[in-house]
């Protein structure tokens, strides 16, 4: 498959038609380059809050509700684009108010055949907990697609090895992110590269980029797109298949060969994925030594 991962900048929207045109341009560009799977970043849907004006967009709670209220229409748009251009799309994540009364952070996966499902973020950052009161959503999922098995770890989730291990059957793990500072970008990138190493798979990181004075939530964003694999047979020695230019909006592309993933899992120079279980008895038998 060919993957396109976004460094996505938010815009002030004066109309729904403007949003439709923007998404169509982004999807058309990636599809025109032969991409089969498109990955948008975490909280990229927050630009929809601008459709309700500056007072709503600038208020944390009001902007959450405004975006959640528009997600049904946004899902319809993404599904049409997925079918029109014949591509899989991981849409930008959004705060969704569901039955719990508090929002979850949810990314929707759209299939060109009309299928659709979502992945909720599992572990909240301090900002999400303390300021937004975003709550954990439903369980991790493994999506079986015509492109292979796909998992999603939203931003902070990629920094936790056991969540990655739960997706060890995935050929590709998507990592949509939203990070304010360069240090945050590197935390998520290191997490994504670590999960690729442990699972001997490919991880795909998308980033929100640019500054937005109209928002308390996504006012400063740092990052770029990146595609990573294990530094082993069939992959670059650095593990970096492709990376964009920092803070420059646009797509980053990479070709992913599932047979190479299968080969490195079966006969790599190291077998991290296979040898994972050997950790437990040794980690549980630690002794204290005074020197």
UniProtKB/TrEMBL annotation:
All copies of domain CN hydrolase, residue ranges: 1-258
Keyword Hydrolase: yes
Matches recorded under InterPro entries: C-N_Hydrolase, C-N_Hydrolase_sf
Molecular-function GO terms, alphabetical: hydrolase activity
Keyword annotations: Hydrolase
Listed SUPFAM superfamilies: Carbon-nitrogen hydrolase
Pfam family, one: CN_hydrolase
Matching PANTHER family: HYDROLASE YHCX, NITRILASE-RELATED
Official protein name in the record: Amidohydrolase
